[in-house]
């Protein structure tokens, strides 16, 4: 869908209407038949520490197949919370019907929050967060009215879940934020809102709609290294931090010693380095590979629910969650990085102490969330992924003055024994392209934080956006309210 497909103005007949999730029994019967006909491949007898080295293992997939055939009931899933507790709606934009969840907070002073998903996720990922964001409960010594609440809108990208797929080539990071922004306008939030979720869509929102997208929060972002040509100040700060190894608080600029130290994998021989690379989860790599030939992949993934599940699990799998009382703390560029480093070391030691236990932390992803990719077919989502990869390069080199908050979740993967080998790029690399206003580092894994760490993600959003609201940097919802029947 080209940008011209999105109407430049709204009409009364372009209503927001209630939507009830329901899949035809004929389609469910066909899916069940395909599951019964599944042919599982043979695999090598590998030790547990290497069972993910060649992709999704049969020992993980086979129990899920049995569960789908014998224990899973889609009709119950349609009626179960949290799906039914959050009102679903649709609105039409010319030829496309856009599906989204919209839930308002009882008080009018809530902040409008747009939750953005990406591939291979869907609106299901944010379902468990909506009630906590719209109906907050005060913590110790904190009154309920002091807790930041939100009016939440969670749309589905075109071709994902229950949103119509575009029939035109080129629907990517320019068109998706435009649709989301139009949805917010139709719901009465045209005066301004905040966005949270995948960095690429939120970044496009911040660039294309900076007067309405007032602040952004994202999780586990990855930034390119600062260059002198793109941002001289960010580049010089990074070089100074490299020289001091981030051990001088006033010269750390938000970096930590572990981010600055050279990963061991870079010091190893080519053979060992290649072996380590093969053992890591290929999330970013698979994102790129899947985007290269979306139509070819659609023939196999669109015809096999287990094939689609195997592909998604290979992208998403992480270790089981490790609980640590010192797991997180807010970070400011002006706080001492040494104190943070001590907590990081303790948390990493706790993770390594459990390194012999590997598992898949999907928290139900094998059921409802995978179905949201299976039902419409994966081809439109894969086409969108291709466009998003092509569009993202032009966004990386520009600077956005919209404030950014970041939550990171330490992901000790099921095949990475060397914690330094899996160290992500420094967060403050993002200062060359964002106004980074808030950072919190968590020592718990979370490939999909909305599913794996909601107890950390919700307070982070409250703290970051609440601080901006109290400081007058973003406004609460003072716009008109639509009728409840419209979602």
TrEMBL record:
GO molecular function, one term: epoxide hydrolase activity
Domain (Epoxide hydrolase N-terminal): residue spans on this chain: 16-126
Region described as Disordered: spans on this chain: 466-487
Family annotation (Gene3D superfamilies): alpha/beta hydrolase (3.40.50.1820)
Keywords: Hydrolase
TM regions (residue ranges): none
Coiled coil: none
GO BP term, pick one: epoxide metabolic process
Family per similarity comment: Belongs to the peptidase S33 family.
Protein name in UniProt: Epoxide hydrolase N-terminal domain-containing protein
Organism expressing this protein natively: Leptosphaeria maculans (strain JN3 / isolate v23.1.3 / race Av1-4-5-6-7-8) (Blackleg fungus)
């Amino acid at each position: 869908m080209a940008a011209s497909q999105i109407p430049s103005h709204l009409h009364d007949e372009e209503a927001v209407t209630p939507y009830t999730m329901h899949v035809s029994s004929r389609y469910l019967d066909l899916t069940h038949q395909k599951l019964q006909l599944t042919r599982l491949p043979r695999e090598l007898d590998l030790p547990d520490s290497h069972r993910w080295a060649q992709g999704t293992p049969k020992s993980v997939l086979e129990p899920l197949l049995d569960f789908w055939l014998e224990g899973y009931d889609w009709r119950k899933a349609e009626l179960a919370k949290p799906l039914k507790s959050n009102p679903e709606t649709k609105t039409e934009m010319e030829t496309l019907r856009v599906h989204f969840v919209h839930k308002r907070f009882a008080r009018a002073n809530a902040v409008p929050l747009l939750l953005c998903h990406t591939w291979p996720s869907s609106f299901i990922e944010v379902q468990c967060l909506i009630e906590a964001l719209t109906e907050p409960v005060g913590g110790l010594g904190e009154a309920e009215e002091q807790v930041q609440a939100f009016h939440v809108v969670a749309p589905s990208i075109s071709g994902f879940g229950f949103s119509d797929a575009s029939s035109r080539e080129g629907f990517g990071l320019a068109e998706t934020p435009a649709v989301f922004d139009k949805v917010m306008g139709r719901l009465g939030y045209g005066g301004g809102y905040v966005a949270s979720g995948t960095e690429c869509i939120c970044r496009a929102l911040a660039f294309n709609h900076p007067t309405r997208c007032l602040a952004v929060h994202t999780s586990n972002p990855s930034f390119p290294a600062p260059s002198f040509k793109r941002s001289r100040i960010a580049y010089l700060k990074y070089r100074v931090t490299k020289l001091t190894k981030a051990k001088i608080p006033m010269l750390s600029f938000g970096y930590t010693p572990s981010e600055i130290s050279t990963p061991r994998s870079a010091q190893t021989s080519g053979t060992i380095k290649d072996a380590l690379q093969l053992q890591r989860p290929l999330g970013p790599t698979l994102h790129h590979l899947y985007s290269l030939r979306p139509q070819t992949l659609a023939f196999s993934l669109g015809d096999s629910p287990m094939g689609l599940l195997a592909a998604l699990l290979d992208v998403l799998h992480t270790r089981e969650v490790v609980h640590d009382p010192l797991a997180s703390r807010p970070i400011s560029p002006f706080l001492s990085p040494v104190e943070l480093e001590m907590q990081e070391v303790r948390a990493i030691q706790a993770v390594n102490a459990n390194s012999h236990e590997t598992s898949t932390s999907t928290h139900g992803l094998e059921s409802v969330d995978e179905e949201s990719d299976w039902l419409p077919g994966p081809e439109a989502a894969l086409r969108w992924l291709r466009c998003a990869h092509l569009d993202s390069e032009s966004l990386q080199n520009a600077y956005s003055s919209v404030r950014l908050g970041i939550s990171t979740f330490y992901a000790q993967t099921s095949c990475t024994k060397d914690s330094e080998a899996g160290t992500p790029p420094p967060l403050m690399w993002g200062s060359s392209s964002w106004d980074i206003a808030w950072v919190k580092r968590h020592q718990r894994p979370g490939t999909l934080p909305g599913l794996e760490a909601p107890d950390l993600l919700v307070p982070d959003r409250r703290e970051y956006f609440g601080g901006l609201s109290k400081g007058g940097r973003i406004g609460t919802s003072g716009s008109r309210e639509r009728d409840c029947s419209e979602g």
